[in-house]
Amino acid sequence: MAGTSNKRSGARNHKRGRFNERGADSKKMDHVGEASSCDGMSTRVGAGTTKKRNTKECYKGGARTNEVVRCKKGYVSRSCKENDIRGSCQENDAHDDSYSECTKKTKKYTESKSMQKSKTNELIDQCKKDWEISRRKKVAKSEREDANKRIVKILKGHFYQVLRKRTGSKIVQTLFKYGNATLKDQIFDEIYRYIPELCQCSFSIFFLQKLVDSKYLGKVFEMLKKEHRKILTSRVGAFYFDEVYQRMKVVQKGEMIKEIMGSEAKIFYGGKPLEDIPKEKFNFEAILQKMMDKGLTNLEIMHDLIYYHLMHFNDADERRVFMKGLSLFFVDLLHTQRGKSIAFELLRTSENKKKIFKKTGEYISKMVENAFVHDVLLELIQNGDDKYVLRYILKPIKTGMDVFLNTDNFDLFLLKLIDAHKFEVLKNKFMKAYKKNEKVYALRYEKVVGKLGGPDLKDNEGTCAEAS
């Protein structure tokens, strides 16, 4: 019996020992098997299984140690150099501090910006009562001057912020319109250094347009010249830049081209005309690409840059590739004289004229209305492929003859077609539409009818019917 009880107690102790060992292992496994974010600690994959630890072995006093220490980021293996752990914790603390500091700065900036906006709106609200007096056409001069003085007293030092608001811009425009010379100088002196930013704002641009027809135009031009890179790549700014550029003389336009060319042109060719600068120096690829990407292809400054850029090509293939890209903007080139010269070159050299005819067909009514581009239309009609001429130019005109008869300059276009012997396709349709409202059209199309055979329209009508 004693032997039996000893065996049973031994078995129990053996089981307890196994249980204790398993419990210790499982506890240890739970301790080191938790997910961690640093030092390659093992992570729990499934019940009772873990990935192999991918930590560096380190030895302390000849004995292998692989202890685990709690850190802010999670569990990390204790290195022999405990200072590393302390250092990493300090770095984390510094990172947290810098992050919180950055957050505070951002919050402070946002709050200050919103406060600034609300302050600007308050200033505008304070001016509205006096603005209603100042903006009226029929008001006593002294009353308007008093109202203007009160507005200036409120807005002094804040014109830049106020101009960026819709109502604020209107208030400053009123001051500039009805104010005396001293008041205008005061406003301009305050906003002068902010012109590059203001000309990119869709509200303040209306005030800046008032400066184009004033004595301040020269100063505005000088400021735009300094900040041309920023302004030309802004859609709103580029249109204002071009408006100022159009008012400049040839010499001033040349100075602007040199400014865009860069420092080399200003230093070595500052006092020389553009014609004396070597052609290979006129490389405007970067600025042209940015302007094309934003659709700024109908501006005079753009056409001047293209004109000079075409000079710098020594390789005929490179020039041909560039010209091929311009065919997409064919109609936009027809806004200026220099752009039109580029368009004529496209007509002579372009391999695929279908794109050009297609673009022309999209804007045929506007091109007929604009006498400035009639010579381009005639060039297309006379020297283009008959298939494209009929499809994209003559057929739309023939289909919408009733509309075109009421279009400005259509009579001039028809006279040019008759002289070029290209009117036969339109003749029959024109006469039918003309006869419907002969009293209305008689005076405008007197010369056209005269060239077609005078007042005897019935015979002409029959001839056209036979021809068609």
TrEMBL record:
<feature type="compositionally biased region" description="Basic and acidic residues">
    <location>
        <begin position="18"/>
        <end position="33"/>
    </location>
</feature>
<feature type="repeat" description="Pumilio">
    <location>
        <begin position="153"/>
        <end position="189"/>
    </location>
</feature>
<dbReference type="InterPro" id="IPR016024">
    <property type="entry name" value="ARM-type_fold"/>
</dbReference>
<dbReference type="InterPro" id="IPR040059">
    <property type="entry name" value="PUM3"/>
</dbReference>
<dbReference type="InterPro" id="IPR011989">
    <property type="entry name" value="ARM-like"/>
</dbReference>
<keyword id="KW-0677">Repeat</keyword>
<dbReference type="GO" id="GO:0005730">
    <property type="term" value="C:nucleolus"/>
</dbReference>
<dbReference type="InterPro" id="IPR001313">
    <property type="entry name" value="Pumilio_RNA-bd_rpt"/>
</dbReference>
<feature type="region of interest" description="Disordered">
    <location>
        <begin position="1"/>
        <end position="51"/>
    </location>
</feature>
<dbReference type="GO" id="GO:0003729">
    <property type="term" value="F:mRNA binding"/>
</dbReference>
<dbReference type="GO" id="GO:0006417">
    <property type="term" value="P:regulation of translation"/>
</dbReference>
<protein>
    <recommendedName>
        <fullName>PUM-HD domain-containing protein</fullName>
    </recommendedName>
</protein>
